[in-house]
Amino acid sequence: MPASTTLTAQDRVLVFAPHPDDEALGCGGLIQHAVAAGAQVRVIFQTDGDNNPWPQRYVEQRWSIDDDCRRRWGARRRQEALRSVQTLGLRAEDAIFYGLPDQGLTRLWMQQDARTLDLHVADLQNFRPTLLVVPSQDDNHPDHGGSYELVQEARKRAGLTAVRQWDYLIHRRWFCPEASGLTLNLTLQQKARKLAAIECHETQLYLSSTRFCAYARDEEIFIPNPYA
């Protein structure tokens, strides 16, 4: 990690994950770096990933999925998220769950939903992060773009516009990461622990194991946000 981006025990790192698994896929190495530095880390899961029909159909061998099915699936994914953050070195209480509508974050941002923004503002003001880690606005998944916009609006309302922000991208590959991004190199041990955290999300591995496990690479790439 370059000297200018070194984390210390004085840092307070707040990670936003639109769904359970994004924390491991996009930031599993960074979370380990922060923990090793003695920084305080919180992970906010904005949705429970409950609107996830194809893996649920496969696992539960059912076609019709109603509200009760989705709630059960969301509860299962929360438990996976808790195991993941603990694998990365955090405590269960370092995970915060908003339970917002999966596939609905962009809609909530466009509506400027008061409850949703109040949740974000309250945690920003209470935790007072020195570093925000947020999905990129260029991510192809609408919940990731919506997550980005919600955090930008909330940080303005919380008066935290000067706080550092690093953006991570999951649903589109970098074209030239060396030129545009901040590269975080992982040790073999960190890479193995990141893979173990990804594997905690077992509901997502039934249909996408190869794709998910491929995120346990030798490096993670973040874009320092110049507008934040």
UniProtKB/TrEMBL annotation:
It comes from the Bacteria. InterPro entries: GlcNAc_PI_deacetylase-related, LmbE-like_dom_sf. GO terms for molecular function: hydrolase activity, acting on carbon-nitrogen (but not peptide) bonds, in linear amides. It comes from Prosthecobacter vanneervenii. This is LmbE family N-acetylglucosaminyl deacetylase.
